[in-house]
Amino acid sequence: MRIRQRGRRRPWALPFASVMAVAAVSLSCGDATDIERLEIVGTGVLFGQAFLDLDGDGVPGAGDEPIEGAEVLLVTGTGGEVVQLATTDSIGAFTLFEVPVGTYRLALDTAAVGDSLEVLGDNALVPIELGDTTRIDLGVTYPTRTIEEIASEPLGRRVFTSGIALNSRVNFDAEGRVHVLGASGFLRALNVERSAVTTGDSVRLLGTVVEDNGRPALDPATPEVLIAGAALVVPQSVTLAAAADASGGTLDAALVRLSDVFVTDTVTDADGDFHFVVFDAGDSVEVVVREFLAYPTEILRPDTVVWLSQLSGLLDPVADGAGGVRWRVLPRAPSDLDPEIRIVDLSVTLDLDADSASLGDTVTATVVLTNGGPLDATAFEVRDTIPTAVTYLSSTATAGTYDPGSGLWSLPGLGFGDTDTLRLVVELADTSVANVPFFVEALSLALEVDSNPFNDDASRVLDVRR
C-alpha cells in the first residue's frame, strides 16, 4: 500500500454538521440535564484505485489491470479494528467518505490478494486530518525474487526478477528465449514476449517458474527494459570440461567462451540448424548454430576447417534420453564463432642407398618427413608399402610406429620446422622384374589442412641386376 497523492484540505466538502458547533436546549424541560450537545466531528475522504501491478513499478499505468469487486478495508493504525470498508468498481476505484480524524491502514481483503500476490507497501500508516482529501492507490503485485532465489520457488508461481540480458530477444529462436545474469547466477526466460530487449540491457521479467529439462526457468515471461545498454556483457571463459556439464549445473544459462577447440561430427537437421561437436584432448560439447543466424556453415566442415580459436554461446540443457540432461552451446550471432584454418605443409622425400641390386641384396629406403608449418601437425599417417619383389627385414623410425603388414607409419604429430625419418631395410627376392618401384605418401591430416598437396608423396625405382 503506497500513498500516491495527498490533496489539500477542503473544509467545504465536509458535512455541514461536521463543521458547526451548536447547543440545542430542549424547551419542553427546564432541567439542565436535558441539554443535548452536538460535538465537533472532524473527518476526511480517502479514495484511490486497486490495481494489479504487472510491470512492477508500483504505479498504476496503462499496462496494469484494475481489480474489480475487491473489498478495501480501513482499519485503525494500532488495534487493527475495521472502521469502514468499500468495494472497488469496474476500474478498481474506491472511495471512503467521512473518515474520522486519526491514523489508519488500508488493506485489501485476502480473497482478492490470494496466496501468491503481495500488497505493495502493506501496513503503511495513513494519517487523516480535518478536511483531508487523500488518494491512496493499492497495488497488488507478484513477489520479487532474485535470479538466485528462483531455484527455490514453487513451480507455477508467478514472480518478478531482474538482471542483465545476455542476448537480444528479437529473432533469437523459436522459443523466444532471453538469458539473464543476476548477482551470481543465471536464468533462462522462455517464450519471452517480443520486445526490444538487447544484449546488456537491465531488464525486469514477470514470468512463471517452471522446470525445463530439469532446470528452473521462467515460461512464459514478460520483459521490461529498465536501462538500455546498462552493462557490457563479456562471456565467461571456461574449460571444455566445465561446459560439458555446466560446471555441475551452476553455469546453466551462462554466456561462456571456449578457446582452441576442434570441430567434428557436423550435421544439419531437418529445421536447418547446424550441429557439430567441439573437442579437445579429453572433453567435448555440442554446438548448435541456428538457421536464422545465416552463418556460412560450410567453413566449419572438418575437411576445410577444424579449429575454432574462440567460440562463445549460451549454455542450454537438453534431455539426454536417459533421464538426465546434457548441455549444448548456442552461439548468439556469427561473431560468436572465430574459425581458424589450421594450415601445415607436410613434404615427403624418399631415397634408396643403391640404384640397383641383385638377388639377395639388401637395400635401405629412407623416408624423410618435414613440416613446413606454419602450425604443428597432429596425429597423421604415412603409407610406405613394401614392394612385392622385396622382403621386409627391419625398420627404424625417429618417431611413431611402422606396421609392415599395412605399410602405415603412424605419427603422433610433427612440429613446425621439424623432421622425422623412417628407414626400411629390405632384401631383393624377385629378379623376374626389370625394376622395383618404391612409393611413399603422407595421408590426409586429421586435424589440419595441408596447404601444398603436391609435395606429399615421393617415389624411386630400384633397377634389378640379373
What does this protein structure show overall?
This protein is mainly β and 466 residues long. It folds into four domains: 2-141, Sandwich (Immunoglobulin-like); 149-227, Beta Barrel (OB fold (Dihydrolipoamide Acetyltransferase, E2P)); 236-341, OB fold (Dihydrolipoamide Acetyltransferase, E2P) (Beta Barrel); 344-464, Immunoglobulin-like, CATH 2.60.40. Helices cover 3% and strands 49% of the residues. The strands form eight sheets. Strands 1, 4, 5, 8, 10 and 12 form a six-stranded mixed β-sheet that branches. The longest helix is centred in the middle third of the chain and has 5 residues, at 240-244. It is rod-shaped. Mean pLDDT is 86; it is low at 1-40.
CA-based shape: rod-shaped
The amount of helix comes to: under 10%
**Oligomer description:** single chain
- Total number of helices: 3
- For the record, the CATH class of the largest domain is Mainly Beta
Largest sheet: 6 strands, mixed
Number of strands: 36
Average pLDDT, rounded to a whole number, is: 86
- Gyration radius, rounded: 41 Å
Per CATH, the superfamily of the largest domain is: Immunoglobulins
Cα end-to-end separation: 112 Å
Hey, roughly how much beta strand do the residues contain?
A: over 45%
Number of domains: 4
Low-confidence regions: 1-40
CATH topology of the largest domain: the name is Immunoglobulin-like
Could you say which structural class the secondary elements and strand pairing correspond to? mainly beta
CATH architectural name of the largest domain: Sandwich
